[in-house]
Write a structure and sequence with these properties.
Layout: H1 3-24, H2 31-43, H3 52-68, H4 83-102, H5 105-123
Helix pairs in contact: 3-4, 3-5, 4-5
């Protein structure tokens, strides 16, 4: 190995050790305490979890828009939907197609948001529906 090669190897090793030290928190006083606090909070439930009705509204809106453009494939499970959510999707897409024919694409887009929110709120009005995650609930 040449002297230049040895210097580059030593420099690379030094940078790797520095990076490892920074990642481990060695450069910050109290880093160990912060790591423990982070670990404890990671075990706690998330205070910002998305409510089921809102999550349903978002996923139904997404798949409804894709269905209107013919950009879908597979069955409801490949879309990440339950059977009950798929029923909502079918109702929303049918209504949006009719609205697009009657008015225009923008009206259909607004209808998707409104109808998805309405049907998802109804489905999740009492929390999670019964019948398990793929139940008709």
């Amino acid at each position: 190995m040449t002297t230049g090669g040895a210097r580059r190897t030593a420099a690379a090793l030094g940078l790797a050790l520095l990076a490892a030290g920074l990642a481990a928190g060695c450069d910050q006083p109290g880093a160990r305490d912060n790591a423990n606090a982070t670990r404890a909070s990671a075990d706690s439930p998330s205070p910002s979890a998305t409510p089921p009705a809102r999550l349903c509204t978002q996923i139904i809106g997404y798949w409804s828009r894709r269905a209107l453009t013919g950009d879908t494939y597979g069955d409801y499970q490949s879309m990440g939907l339950s059977d009950g959510q798929y029923e909502i999707l079918r109702k929303v897409v049918d209504a949006a197609r009719a609205e697009r024919r009657r008015a225009d694409a923008q009206a259909a887009d607004h209808l998707i948001d409104r109808k998805a929110r309405e049907l998802c709120e109804k489905r999740y009005r009492n929390g999670e529906p019964t019948g398990g995650p793929w139940g008709a609930g």
